[in-house]
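2024-03-11 09:14:02 INFO worker-7 job=invfold-0412 stage=load source=structure_tokens
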């Protein structure tokens, strides 16, 4: 097999590797998408070990370094390699706690550095244009079943919560219409607060603005037209069941196009816009961190770069000495 050729992937994980994945799913409660990426990375690790005739518990740092090199030769992006290394490192550390290996061969390995792209945020004027654009019921471009006041009210409430409270897609779609024992999240209308379940199953409360509260009241008045009997989801699809991410993304993309925005808009862009605009107005990085539910302040600091980018554009456009002759 040539140096850059990909070894055939095994059909399933070895029992000792599967036990680690089960640990991540049951005890660590990793998100489904993260679990899927880790599983794929561990299948790649197994394939490389099998191709070289090496039992994973006996793999050396030299083996692991060579297998990382294979990932680079196969064109994996630095971020994908970083995810693979995180999965491999987690496996060997867990095996170490189980007494299956004496030392981890992954320690000391680092993924290639990759440029960190800044999150894409809308300009304040674009966000306001999107929020103020008439709903689906007033849009002649939509025909048939999609052209209803109930769907327009739902989409308006979703947009206001995404931009007004900075919710993640999973947090928003996990909201129930009322608080109950098994609810992942809900909105307390009298208190003006959304209670959500964020990453790592961490709960937090975020304020809900006046515009979002009004949009939610309008949606709740029409929600019985769509919601199936007994459905607890706050936001439902045309079938009456909980709205799913792909449906949300498609509706938001269409709404942005109808509003004349010159860029592709996705739900997380509204979260970025929330953070960037709030930081521009307040300058309070810690408060933005709390509202976003970031575990580390370094994750939130990326928005300071967006803020500087905004100031630089203002300078370039307005200062008489900014433009080069």
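2024-03-11 09:14:09 INFO worker-7 stage=emit residues=325
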């Amino acid at each position: 097999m040539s140096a850059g050729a990909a070894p055939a992937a095994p059909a399933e994980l070895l029992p000792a590797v599967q036990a680690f994945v089960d640990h991540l799913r049951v005890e660590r409660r990793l998100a489904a998408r993260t679990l899927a990426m880790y599983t794929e990375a561990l299948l790649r690790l197994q394939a490389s070990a099998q191709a070289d005739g090496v039992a994973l518990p006996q793999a050396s740092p030299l083996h692991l370094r060579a297998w990382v090199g294979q990932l680079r030769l196969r064109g994996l992006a630095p971020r994908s390699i970083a995810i693979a290394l995180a999965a491999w490192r987690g496996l060997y550390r867990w095996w170490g706690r189980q007494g299956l290996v004496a030392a981890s061969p992954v320690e000391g390995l680092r993924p290639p550095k990759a440029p960190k792209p800044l999150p894409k945020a809308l300009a304040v004027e674009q966000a306001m244009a999107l929020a103020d654009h008439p709903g689906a019921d007033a849009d002649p471009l939509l025909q048939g079943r999609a052209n209803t006041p109930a769907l327009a009210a739902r989409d308006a409430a979703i947009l206001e919560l995404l931009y007004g409270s900075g919710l993640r897609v999973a947090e928003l779609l996990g909201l129930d219409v009322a608080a109950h024992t098994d609810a992942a999240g809900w909105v307390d209308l009298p208190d003006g607060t959304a209670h959500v379940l964020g990453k790592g199953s961490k709960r937090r409360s975020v304020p809900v603005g006046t515009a979002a509260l009004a949009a939610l009241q309008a949606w709740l008045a029409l929600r019985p037209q769509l919601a199936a009997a007994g459905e607890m989801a706050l936001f439902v699809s045309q079938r009456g069941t909980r709205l799913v991410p792909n449906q949300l993304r498609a509706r938001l993309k269409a709404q942005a196009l109808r509003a004349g925005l010159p860029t592709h808009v996705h739900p997380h862009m509204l979260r970025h816009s929330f953070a960037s605009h709030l930081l521009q107005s307040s300058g309070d990085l810690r408060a933005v961190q709390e509202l976003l539910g970031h575990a580390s302040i370094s994750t939130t600091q990326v928005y300071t770069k967006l803020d500087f980018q905004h100031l630089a554009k203002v300078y370039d456009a307005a200062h008489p000495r900014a433009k080069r002759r």
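2024-03-11 09:14:09 INFO worker-7 stage=report msg="The beta strands are 175-176, 185-188, 193-197, 203-207."
2024-03-11 09:14:10 INFO worker-7 job finished
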